[in-house]
Amino acid sequence: MSSIACCSGSVDKGTPLGTIETIAGHSVYIGSPVPADQRNLVIIATDVFGYTLPNVRLIADKFASKGYFCVVPDLFKGSEPPADLMDDLEALSAKGSGIRAKMTGVGRLLWHFPGFILRNNDKMGMDIIEAVVADLRATRGVQKIALQGYCWGGNIGIKLAQKDGVLDVASVAHPGGNLAIPQDFDKVVKPIYVALAETDNQINASQCELIKASLEKRSKELGIMQKVEWFLGVEHGFAVRGKESDSHVNSQRERAFEDALAFIQKALSL
Length: 270
Fold this sequence. Notes:
- It is globular and about 55 Å long.
- It has helices at 3-7, 54-65, 85-93, 99-119, 122-140, 152-160, 183-186, 205-222, 238-241, 247-269; strands at residues 19-23, 26-30, 40-45, 69-73, 144-150, 169-173, 192-199, 226-235.
- The chain has one domain (3-80, 118-269): Rossmann fold.
- By secondary structure, the chain is of the alpha/beta class.
- The model has no long low-confidence stretch (mean pLDDT 93).
- The protein is built from 10 helices and 8 strands.
- Helix 6 links the parallel strand 5 and strand 6 (169-173).
- An 8-stranded mixed sheet has the order 1-2-4-3-5-6-7-8, with helices on both faces.
- GO terms for molecular function: hydrolase activity.
- It holds the Pfam family DLH.
- Residues 28-267 form the Dienelactone hydrolase domain.
- This is Dienelactone hydrolase domain-containing protein.
């Protein structure tokens, strides 16, 4: 997994409107507005910046505005890197950036990211999501479950889509590079939407074709919905941390959300 790719991007300017609750012993952001009918749940599995990042909370609010009960569990318990690390990595890669800025970026990356990797793994995130889902089924009357996963959380979504009894549909954007391709996709048993970035050293073009072939085969074998989209002119992380100020990146980010929403709506209506 490339730590620079996983930690680059920008922080959104909007103000999240939701609340924090404790569910199954875990802190969870609840997207606003909360619908009166909470039978359809979207649970968001975050990238490495976790559930406190404004970007992911604003996405939760967008799902909530579409009528979904949307929650974002804290998967990392404070071990996630700080959001301003993105600024240092922007300076690290910027043309004309001075040696001091570059040293600061490298130093902060080395300070935060290895510890994060040591403290977290996919299984831990899967356990938290399964616990939150079980609690919400029991206490809120949730019936159908969609997962939206980004980067690190995309891996979690793919692996939960290999299981029965947790999700009804998974949507993942630019999952991380520690997946087994195509083997992890060969095991998928639930409808799945996959949004991939053109410039992504986590998953390259040839691997994208392997993913498409794998999911097309699963669709024929099991009759499940599947869709893989290739987003041009964007990088890893674009669907959650893409720059709002870049018109092309922002438009692709918006399309990724709308396409994921449409896929989820169709899958949950079946």
